[in-house]
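User: Hey, quick favor. My workstation is busy. Could you predict this chain's structure for me?
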Amino acid sequence: MGNDDKQRAAATCEHCGEFGIVQVWPDGSLQPLGQSNFCDCESPELQVLATDLDHDEIP
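Assistant: No problem, here it is.
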């Protein structure tokens, strides 16, 4: 896997506790998957919980 690959990760919002899946970009920025907003917070504080390190094992 190259350094320019993005990863999927589980994340939670520190403000409201909402969980979701995000794309983790090489620069460390997070993009919610399948939605433009992670939660209803005006400025979500997203905390990554876990990442998919081996894409071959994703079902």
